[in-house]
Write a structure and sequence with these properties.
six-stranded antiparallel beta sheet; Beta-Lactamase; alpha+beta; 10 helices
């Protein structure tokens, strides 16, 4: 009841200035989405705010365009987006994950002499939260705070291997972008690769996001068997070849296990 009163008060106070009223209403919607324990539907937002459907769609669409909210592909409801996390200078759990992983990443960097990335799963993307580079003059671009696609990255394909059958079907129904000449866009071929990743627990990327980059990925699983994140070793394709990626595979898996052991 108190929340509804606050909504009504906001709507009444801001009547004099339409532009401020729009901001006020968008903030109300953002708070409702943030307060919901599950993705909240447009109909629920309409019911709670008493705003008309067009207004709610327009405002939620604007919030989504700015990455403040994101739409769940299964429920079609809305939940808080990554931009809010970024403005908060990363969520506390990410700070903890980075802190508990960094020394292990540094050791893996020194062993491989290539870039090591730490990333976390997001809806239909992965988010890189830490990157440690070697001293080579030729190295990867900075991927920290970047969303990376699923079908053409090693950590993205690893995340796809954890999708339910329904989620994977939904994902593969949409056209897959041909980012480079090596990007896999055939759904059947991608399904076969995901099947292999499930069996082996390792995924590879061979010039699929950038023709000059290769990468290998393993998952970080907590003690409750939840997928927490991904650890990648990546490097220039002329230097970090398939042979070198295969040689680092066991060390990468071991590093992920060490990180898992450090998690509460």
């Amino acid at each position: 009841m108190e929340k509804n009163n606050n909504i009504k008060n906001h709507q009444i106070i801001k009547q004099e200035n339409p532009s401020v009223q729009a901001v006020d209403r968008a903030i109300i919607l953002l708070k409702l989405i943030a307060d919901s324990s599950n993705p909240i539907s447009i109909n629920e937002l309409i019911e709670k705010t008493k705003l008309n459907r067009t207004t709610v769609w327009r405002l939620v669409g604007t919030l989504e365009n700015h990455d403040l909210v994101e739409r769940d592909p299964i429920t079609k409801g809305y939940q808080i987006g990554y931009a809010t996390v970024r403005m908060a200078n990363l969520a506390p759990q990410y700070h903890s994950l980075v802190r508990r992983s960094r020394w292990i990443m540094e050791k893996l960097r020194d062993e491989s002499q290539e870039t090591v990335l730490l990333s976390v799963p997001k809806h239909f993307a992965t988010l890189t939260i830490e990157q440690i580079d070697p001293n080579h003059s030729i190295r990867l671009v900075d991927y920290v705070n970047a969303y990376l696609p699923l079908h053409c990255t090693s950590n993205g394909k690893m995340l796809l291997s954890y999708f339910s059958t329904e989620e994977l079907d939904i994902f593969l129904k949409k056209p897959l972008e041909k980012v480079t000449a090596l990007t896999i866009t055939d759904p059947n071929r991608l399904r076969e690769e995901i099947k292999d990743i499930k069996e082996n627990g390792i995924s590879f990327c061979l010039g699929e996001l950038d023709e000059n980059e290769n990468g290998i990925c393993a998952p970080i699983i907590d003690k409750k068997q939840n997928l927490v994140g991904f650890l990648n070793v990546c490097g220039p394709s002329f230097r970090f070849t398939e042979e070198k990626m295969s040689a680092i595979k066991n060390r990468l898996v071991e590093a992920c296990k060490r990180i898992s052991e450090n998690l509460d």
